[in-house]
Design goal:
The protein is an alpha/beta fold. It has four domains: 4-214, Spore Coat Polysaccharide Biosynthesis Protein SpsA, Chain A; 221-328, no CATH class; 364-521, Rossmann fold (3-Layer(aba) Sandwich), CATH 3.40.50; 530-592 and 602-704, Rossmann fold. It is 41% helix and 16% strand. Strand 1 (4-10), helix 1 (17-25) and strand 2 (32-38) form a beta-alpha-beta unit. The termini are far apart. It is found in: Cell membrane. It comes from Micromonospora palomenae.
Amino acid sequence: MTLISFVVPAYRVQGYLRECLDSILGQPFDDLEVIGVDDASPDAVGDILDEYAARDPRVRALRLPRNVGLGPARNAGLDRAGGEYVWFVDGDDWLAPDCLPEVADRLRAARPDVLVVDHVRAHWNDTATRSAMAEVFPEPPGEATFRLRDRPETLHLLHTAWNRVVRREFLVDLGLRFAPGWYEDVSFTYPVLLAAERIAVLDRVCVNYRQRRAGAITRTRGDRHFEVFAQWHRVFALMDRWGPAVAELRPAVFERMAWHHLTVLGNGERIAPALRPAFFARMTADHRRFRPPEGYPAPAGLEGLKHRLVAAGRWRTFSALRAANQARATARGTARRALPVARRTARLTRDAVLREYYRAELRRPIDPTLAVYAAYWYRGYACNPAAIHAAARRLAPQIRGVWIVRRDRVDTLPPGTEYVVAGTPGYYRTLARARWLVNNVNFPDFVRKRPGSVHVQTHHGTPVKVMGLDQQRFPLGAGGMDFAGLLRRVDRWDYSITSNSFSTQMWDRAYPASYATLEVGYPRNDRLVTATAGEVREIRDRLGIGPDERVVLYAPTHREHLPRYRPPFDPGRLLDVLGPSGRLLIRSHYFHDRAGRARRRTGGRAVDVSDHGCVEDLYLAADVLVTDYSSAMFDYAVLDRPIVVYAPDRDAYALARGVYFDVTAEPPGAVALTFAELLELFRSDAVTGAEAQRARQRFRGRFCALDDGHAAERVVRRVFLDDPA
């Protein structure tokens, strides 16, 4: 029997459903099935479910003939579930990476009727807030199971279906179903806890609960919020039916009902002002109807006062109290905002003064010996600008090179490197006076193109995904780009450095302007050509890699349209295939560092090298590269070592982000579309086989012919020494 059946109801969630399904199917855990329920959604939900079902046998798509609502849609999925446990996950939420093995371990060890898991609220503006798990259980319950009467505080966890995994046979024997209407979780989750003989808690965030900016029921005003009363009536009807077995829990359940009613009423985005008196009256009626004769644990202070006003039916007093509290909150908010506003004003004033300083420096002569370098939005000494800087110090020592870096990256600069910190007066002065400005991204919009100055755009990779103006056709990956502003920045370029004719063609259409193209190879790849065997041994020694170890470098790219997505990848399983001499280096995209993303947990023979300052070191140390749509494959191909394209979301990536060519059709080596296929490639040695070698040679002939170890020299002679040859 399958361990977990996921029931995923979906209605008007086409923008989120792929992330939800990928978060389940991409887990390092296979003992599952997914029943996707299209609740007669008017968008592409049904097609997405059919697509996933066609390519993954673990997925079954169910299309309902008419819209029935979230509760009945879950019931339809439950009827088709065959797993030992059922997990209801909404189509706009998603699972945390790597959580399923821990969930499965707890289910198998404890055999609970219900396992409650933790979650975070993931807001639409890319912030997150924690759940109440830590407050409810200051000391985690551990691995022991319990009944609700022993830990009644469990009722204070969020009453949703998706934060608990329920034993299917327990549900069937109980005869419990989701009721129709809004707030359907209430009449399901509380009875589940009341009836369960064995409750377990996993103190690990497993679900990202999406807080949508628009479209969510909790942000929709209307009289359907009155349906919350019927759901609570169902809870107490079940308690009446079950009698003495749950009687002692009635006070705790009643307190939750009173809290929930107040929560719904207090949310201005749910109950319109005209409906609040009627909603309050229903609250009072249910308070009197269901209040236990022995009382209940009412809260103290202001919340307790609210409970007493509801019990007495004192709407006017309640309303006046609410207005007074809102006025006090507004006053406190104004006071709290005063200091940030003052700080922001001071910062804006400082910025304005520095911009005026920059404009004044623009009126001074250009320094004919000054070259300014930057890379990756001032992240440090890296990429093509670093290689050009090193070559210029050797070939044109009369030119003074100055790097722009963030303050927190100063310590990453090589010893003796002259620099200025971004945002300081020296930064503005250097930008204004430099004759040469070299960057692998664009300088800020305020930077002026002075007559006599030379702007060099080195780029930072051969493009697989679409770039520049071509992104207008793929808005999911464009991220709100200002295309008019982009063209203004491109118009500053004097030179565009490309590594092959393919890049030249793509940049011409993506960034149309009057710059000159220097198709000379990539300066950063010179080191890959010129490195000696002794240098490679030294690098591997610094990384703690033995001479007989086989090193695989895994370097996936960033998904702009799915910023939290990580390709399904289990380091332990790959290392098992590689054997005892295998070593795995894992490097995330630099965007993940900029966004403060948590690193993948690694250890032993799997090492996270995302913070390693020089990616060329990692290329030289690695025996095999595994990547997807990253430009890393073009650089690594210079070494003529095996490359594997691992593209589990190939079609979705091409559709959402757009690609210039299909790397699985014109690959630099072997290709895997699933993690199982990736393991088989290594298990069968197809990674180094004749077919993979032929593919790599074709790829190298197309993209790497100019990388001969002298690209940086060619740039320096043309740009700094004005040598047209």
